[in-house]
Amino acid sequence: MPYKKLRIETLNRVGYILLDAGSRFNKLSITTIRELKRALAQVEADGEVAAIVLTGHPGESFAVGADIGQMLHFDSGDAFHFAELGQSLFAQIEACPKPVIGALNGIAMGGGCDLALACDIRIASEAVRIAHPGARLGIITGFCGTRKLPRLVGKNLAREIFMTSDPYSAQEALAMGLVDSVYSAAEFWPRVRAFAERVAAHPLLALSGAKRLLNAAEDTDLRTGCLLERETAAMVNFRPPAA
Amino acid sequence: MPNRLCTITADPGGIADLAIAGGAATQRQLLEAVQRQIASLSANQAVKGVIVRGQGEGFCRCCGVDTHTNPYGAGELAAFGQQVMFSLEKIGKPCIAAISGECCGVGLELALSCDFIIASRRARFGFPDIAQGRLPFCGGTQRLARLVGKSKAKEMIFGGELLAAEEAYRIGLVNRLYDDNELLPRTRELLERICSRSPFAVRIGGEVINAGYDIDLQTACLLERDAFALIFASHDRREGMQAFLDKREPEFKGE
Lengths: 243, 255
Hints:
The complex is a heterodimer of chains A (243) and B (255). With 243 residues, chain A is α/β, with parallel strands linked by helices. Chain A has helices at 30-45, 68-71, 76-95, 111-118, 134-137, 145-153, 155-164, 170-175, 185-200, 204-219, 222-237, and strands spanning 6-11, 14-19, 51-55, 61-63, 100-104, 107-109, 121-125, 129-131, 168-169, 181-183. In chain A, a hairpin with a 2-residue loop joins strand 1 (6-11) and strand 2.
């Protein structure tokens, strides 16, 4: 089945999921989220791919939340299912054994900001504007942002971002740890590709092990985390002696 | 009765200024005064947002040391102090600490219990009481470690030195840094902007962030999903989205 809201390209062991939802903003409609889930499953299953890049490149936006016109008519039940659908995409990104790099080419707002947060690493262009405008719309986010943003930038900055609904620049996002690196618009795409290819050149078993352990580090106590590390290292690092 | 320890000034726009001076005889006296003001701010429907700040020098500085005949007394004071901080955290409206000078001990505990801290370049932060063998007791060890990380929190608490504003900003203890004369106008401006957003969304968002921080990702996301669904039943949500589509400013009612 073809995709309407995105394209997939594969090059040098990197799978690129290029969002192109048909408007300037890459709205995360129900259809777009479903296609993202399907695309992720496809790239994950592709034996030629060791790392995944999620981006709105070369468009103007990374992604924004749902279509407000569509959401206006949601009742609580619709909102419940919408949150579940979005969260299931983000759980899929987290569970994906391949590193998922968010290449933030432009506007990342609301659900789009949460999509960025769901990625393992975020690389941003100078053009990026990040915001969580829920409080301006009278809502909170439903895509795990209330949990993920405070863990990434600290509780107080997260509260500021949600409470003000204001947009933040790429440099501000970098200073607070919301993105991991920032490049000029010209440098951005070559740097994303270079980094993704560098990651993808490493053995997938080690990458998946590292991803699993680092995700677990956030949710487990130190002893349990170390136990998990021992088991994973035993499997990944094992080299039989030459016969 | 000496000078009043805390005063509230509220403007017609609903921004309340909770100014806390130094000079309390004991920490208990200070905490009791703060507790009364928090209760009245929380109950007052006309108050939309709160700025917590010092008054002159020595925000929250106490003249005397609370003494107890046995550890139970100190434990009881800690229980009371923690309760006061929880009531500030749950005040139900946006609350920003604006710090222009020294912010130590109970003062830092109070600032840590606000939504976030804004400071002037002269501000200094710390828990110096370690020098007398005393620990933060109003939840400060826990809130500080969650905000700046375990390692920075240990550096601050073991060392007992006061951190300069720039450093506090760098490690994320302070969200924004301004010149002294700009601090209050900028804080007010920011708080007014926050108060123009949906009060319901601001409050629920803050509560979900707090609740979600200490639990695992899956449970936190369940909580968020349910809060997200709940908020769709609010007047403000409909108004906010309609205003967005009409390209006008929303008129929120907080319901």
